[in-house]
Amino acid sequence: MTAPVLALVGATGAVGTVMIDIMNTRSDFPWGEVRLIASPRSAGKKINVRGQDLTVVALSPEAFDGVDIAMFDVPDEVSAQWAPIAAERGAIAIDNSGAFRMDADVPLVVPEVNADQIDNRPRGIIANPNCTTLSMMASLGALHREFELKELVVASYQAASGAGQSGIDRLYAEIAALAGKEAGVAAGDVAQVLAAAGLSADDSPFPAPLVLNVVPWAGSLKDAGWSSEELKVRNEARKILGIPDLKVSATCVRVPVVTTHSLSVHATFAREVTVEAAHKIFEEQPTIVLIDDPAAGKFPTPADVVGGDPTYVGRVRQALDFPNTLDFFVCGDNLRKGAALNTYEVAEELAKRL
Amino acid sequence: MTAPVLALVGATGAVGTVMIDIMNTRSDFPWGEVRLIASPRSAGKKINVRGQDLTVVALSPEAFDGVDIAMFDVPDEVSAQWAPIAAERGAIAIDNSGAFRMDADVPLVVPEVNADQIDNRPRGIIANPNCTTLSMMASLGALHREFELKELVVASYQAASGAGQSGIDRLYAEIAALAGKEAGVAAGDVAQVLAAAGLSADDSPFPAPLVLNVVPWAGSLKDAGWSSEELKVRNEARKILGIPDLKVSATCVRVPVVTTHSLSVHATFAREVTVEAAHKIFEEQPTIVLIDDPAAGKFPTPADVVGGDPTYVGRVRQALDFPNTLDFFVCGDNLRKGAALNTYEVAEELAKRL
């Protein structure tokens, strides 16, 4: 057959930009044509992909003609409208928004965990998980295969870029506003310092200052005080792992980190689990890097792992008081494995099957 | 009786400085005399306490003569040597170091939780808990009285000042090193930016860059990968609450916040617990401020609570999948309630009984 045609919808956004970086650095490249699609505002822009200047075309039904696989890195409402149109035109849509993740007719895929779900796509749409969920899926999927996951308590340390380019810009602006005032500013004066520098709280994508602070909120308010981000972690983990009754409590907290989400994970299994067994499983999983030697000061931190493809795992401990339970810490680049990379890996899996 | 004499050992340190601020702003002041004690290096220095310039005296056995209560805000090894000397000289020592916390003959006291333990002090020493443990004790103690705590899974967001003045200085220096480079620095370049600014990793009290980063480590390495800070949370919570078999898993993480520790808490009780009942308990506890209205963007963050005496609680949710379980978020100023304030409150309790 001829080499398949890959489309990228949202080519000029924060995740789209990372996607182009991934395409430019991938060793194998199975695509006969890459088509870059964006809003009419960005149409005509030229972006270099693997040595060729490609012209961005405007989103339209016709833009999907001849496309085999269309990756969507756009807001929920754009995906909700356009992924079905792409599917109608014959493309398989891989959507990175929240529009289809919990749709029973749309598989939610992390290739190293549930690649088998890729072929079960009655709507012609495959969904990519939320970046916070994704950051722990490689590690939990690998442990679940061996020990059968039953319960999960997680607390997140989420990066500003999870809120898109405006989140990154805001964090940089807040840091700049502190410049020269570091030695004098007590943490409690942060809001005043930001206001004095002309940074209005109303203009922030975050509900509180993020610099020199942490903010226990991400997403929108759902039932009974839970945030949308916390429910995504629960519901998406259940769907990806195929454990409909998995017990989950998640607390999602934004921290002043540009890129890379971290999670503190407390995971209880049906069977006995040791640190040695977990280390072996993590070492054997190609998409995980184990950094776990605290005696030598070695554990994953966002600054060490940003820009990398793998999930980094460390601080693996057997819970002292909970049977069959591990506590550990994971870091994953939320724009790569947490978004663009996983979507692209799903596209690669599909390319093998076309 | 004559008004009691209060000594402060470590008057010139980070916590000692906060202690003097607390003494200067307390409405009732039961002390007949305040004696400021520090290392010989600081002796002779004058510090104003409630309008009087007091001269710091050098630490010596004689410095404790006539002292009723001696508060120690000094490193473990200094407390280990000198608190027993103060007790021998007739003072009751209240020690904020880790030297005596797990000593069976030394009570570990949080006044609103276990004030009754104050009188049970065979060595003449009372210990003040670790700041991370303390940040959640007011809230857990109040819930435990009503619902009987059984299990605890916590993840911390710990401030730089938990590592003392050198931690504060380092975080400010790291922020200053970023100045002017914000727009260009990707999170992954932080270590290089710091090195280029002359900030050696070897000079940091933290094992990794803290600015634009989080570091899943605090304290020293203990058995099986656990950090000393994580074991303190477990062992001190058990002792303070009087639950020797309390199940605890803690993961301690340092974040780029100057002052105020935060904790994500997942707490399981023997009896059914609702958000409404928990709200009522928190509202009735004078040392807790409940900020829990996410629809209005209201929840505690370190920037809001630093410099305050209470523990701030919010994000209270009934766990969706775990019976009798609450998830919530607490913030407490680690230099005040987490250290100086609690020590001073113990001294006030003692003053009532002298």
TrEMBL record, chains A, B:
SUPFAM superfamilies: Glyceraldehyde-3-phosphate dehydrogenase-like, C-terminal domain (SSF55347), NAD(P)-binding Rossmann-fold domains (SSF51735). Pfam families: Semialdhyde_dh (PF01118), Semialdhyde_dhC (PF02774). Phosphate binds at R101. Its EC number is 1.2.1.11. Substrate binds at Q158, R254. Keywords: Amino-acid biosynthesis, Diaminopimelate biosynthesis, Lysine biosynthesis, Methionine biosynthesis, NADP, Oxidoreductase, Threonine biosynthesis. Pathway: Amino-acid biosynthesis; L-lysine biosynthesis via DAP pathway; (S)-tetrahydrodipicolinate from L-aspartate: step 2/4; Amino-acid biosynthesis; L-threonine biosynthesis; L-threonine from L-aspartate: step 2/5; Amino-acid biosynthesis; L-methionine biosynthesis via de novo pathway; L-homoserine from L-aspartate: step 2/3. NADP(+) binds at T12, G13, A14, V15, R41, S42, S161, G162, N334. It is an enzyme of class 1 (oxidoreductase). One of its GO terms (biological process) is lysine biosynthetic process via diaminopimelate. Homodimer. Belongs to the aspartate-semialdehyde dehydrogenase family. Catalyzes the NADPH-dependent formation of L-aspartate-semialdehyde (L-ASA) by the reductive dephosphorylation of L-aspartyl-4-phosphate. PANTHER family: ASPARTATE-SEMIALDEHYDE DEHYDROGENASE (PTHR46278:SF2), DEHYDROGENASE, PUTATIVE-RELATED (PTHR46278). This is Aspartate-semialdehyde dehydrogenase.
